[in-house]
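Hey, resending since the last one bounced:
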Amino acid sequence: MKELPSPFYPGKPVHPEFFTGRKDQIKEIMRLMHDTIKGSQRNVFIIGERGIGKSSIASFIDWWGQNNYQSFLSCHTFLGNTINVEAMVGKIIEELLEKVNKKPYWDKIKKIFGNTITEAGLFGINIKFNPTDDQMKDLIENFPSKLLEISNKIKENSEDENPCFLIILDDIDKIIDNESFHYWIKSTLDYMSTNKDFINFPLCLILVGLEDKYEALSKYQPSTKRIFNVVKINRMTNMEIEELVSNALDKVNHTVTKEALDLISTYSSGLPVVAHEIGDQAYYISEDSEIDMEDMANAITKAAHQIGTKYIESKITKAIRSEDYKSILKKINKDEISNTFNISHIKKILKDEEKKKLSNFLVRMQELGLINKDFSKKSGSYHYTQSIYPVYLYMISQKK
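The structure tokens again:
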């Protein structure tokens, strides 16, 4: 039994105090945040594939601001299944209010929203925002004015306080398909950039999503893309993965051998989400304070099951109803982790019966959204729709 909990964060954003790497991207966002603190409006879109650490970076920026500036008012809103602007704006307001409900100016802030606020829980620590339809419509249309009112009430409490706002909208994959979301973003930011009341108003808006979601900004409002500074999060290098693992284990007084580090960096393929899954398993498998090659190898086997269950298994299961399909799937990624493959290479390693079923297999994989044709490469090329798929397939293909 381990004395301390695992220092890894499988399936969730890393706690900011344990954040590692991404120095260039952090530096870029910090520069924009410094502009905001000095009185400029800045807008950022953090893009990257799934499991790459976008939310962890956003959480770190939020944490950094709260710990370095007295009047830093922020929300990190995960939208997930939120599909309309009303619910989104309600979440933003609730989170902002929860940040100030213990401040000396709370009563003044509360008056801005009238009877729409209820305080629940011990000492009123939980804030609920329950506007009527008309009140919500007014809030959506006049969102910048509400932020300005909040800012002015805080300034009334102390001339030394000049609140800086950070609004992070994370996991926007569903709501970005709603036309009203695009209209609200564009109209809100345009109003604040052209109205004299918002000259030197410190606001940073950060959107977090997949790369194709950034491209979707131009679908309804072609000029919206130009508003955002794009920060792309790429895969970690092997060195960064090794730093992540070593630093995490160091916090719980554990070490890891060089051979074990090489193994986890290979299987992680630059994806932090995979490194955290493997690291978490390795920490609990190890019977002492050093994680060696055997510990890591066993951890990879267990992590493969976790990754399959959490992210992939249902789609893969649908794709491999026959043993031949299952065999083809494993052979595609048997020798290396690659986002792309070509059928001419695959045919060389398939049995005759498997070759006969390859075409139907590829059609089925496309129907399930696991692969797409890669027209940027030679004929017969395909790429996986998510980078975690080939990592998982490589992991299970190595099982004995």
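The chain has a mean pLDDT of 88.

Sorry for the duplicate.
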